[in-house]
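Lecture 7 notes. Example A: sequence first, then its structure tokens.
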Amino acid sequence: MFFIPRKNFPYFKTIAQSEMRAINRSAVLEYLRLAGCASRTELSEELNISMPTVMRIVDQLIKNGFVRSTGRIQGSMGPSRELLELNMAENLVVGIDFKGNHVDGVIASIGGQILHESHEAENGAKESDNFHRLKDFIDRMLQMSQEYSARILGVAVAIPGIVDKQNGVVTHAPSLQWKQFPLIERLKNHVSLPVVIENDVNLAALGEYWFGKGTGTRNMVMISIGTGIGAGIIMEGRLYRGNSYSSGEIGYFLPGTEYLDARYPEFGALETLASEKGIVERAVKKMQVKGIKQAEKIDVDYVLKALNNSEDWAVDLFSQTVDCLSL
């Protein structure tokens, strides 16, 4: 008899009953968000979930205040049916986009309606400074949320770097000077609500997939150009993070063989050329070589203005930038 060593067994993925309940619950909530309202029968038929399961899920969602009745509709045959909708007015979330040089925050309903926006521009010098900036900003947003007669379900924080979601650790975020930073653990001491952290471009990709250019598709890639360069990848309707949560770190791509055998300890090779920071640094060098008098402040807006004015050095710079991104 021939035996296959256990280490060579294929990887079998099973799912627990609790996970299946959570998946079905999410499917019901997402369907109601997209459809606006639906009956239990429609949920059962469209989601291919048994009616008893739908009834248990809906009853629990109503009890917990996430779903409410919005009237009844008369069926073509048989009795009328109760219509259900998301209870958006009574369930809010706080979303925060935390960057090295600014932080943005919103208070929104679970249906995506934005009720309040805040923006602060400030640079944090050190790892601890940046954490205190984030903590204080969350405190101000939660204070602001008290103006609404609704509960806050939790806080989501977008981080410009690699996020280990399983352990709640920011593995690497150069603009924040965070490496292996235990963000969730640190925030638990200050925030009593559930906190979710995720890579900023991953969240932006989900936003486009749910509400923007990605609606109606199952697969998409979003590329974001800012202080660094990142990508958010949606495959078969799900966010793809990769084996080490770094699938979208395309800023480390090498634009050519001349970039081999070089170290990039913070920002990657592509980012040194085509990110906002890279564009500005290359602009300064080009102006120096051409002997062009430089303004006091050179930023991306300054370079874009020069491009709009068809200045040769800016046209050349952006042509090279587009080539890098195209590759």
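Example B, a different protein, same format:
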Amino acid sequence: MNDCIFCKIISKEIPADIIYEDDHVISFLDIKGLNPGHSLVIPKKHCENIYSFDSETAQQVFTVVPVIARAIKQAVDANGINIGMNNEIAAGQAVFHAHVHVIPRYRNDGYQLWEGKPVSHEVSQDIADKIKKAL
């Protein structure tokens, strides 16, 4: 992908603070991280989002995520870690090369988690049935 910023990081066309790299996955610090150590874990193979992952790509990426999380937690003495992945514009995806955020968190760091909305059992059951059919 000629215009993909993450593909350019992978090919070393543009610099990044790379913290991990193997044949299939690369991880680097987010240039606009929420806290110091906020990193991205991405497949080297260009995939637009999670829907593009085959099982092998998913295994490669998600095998590395906990390794990176443990290293970040230790390195920056975080109280916790958030793992997240934004898929499509509605979910906040800004770079269309799949990437998993590994975000170190601290008590009272000012970032809030989302609040859930109550759902009736009937609605929940209907949604669960639709998801099962889609599988």
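Note on Example B: The mean pLDDT is 96. DSSP finds three helices and five strands in the chain.
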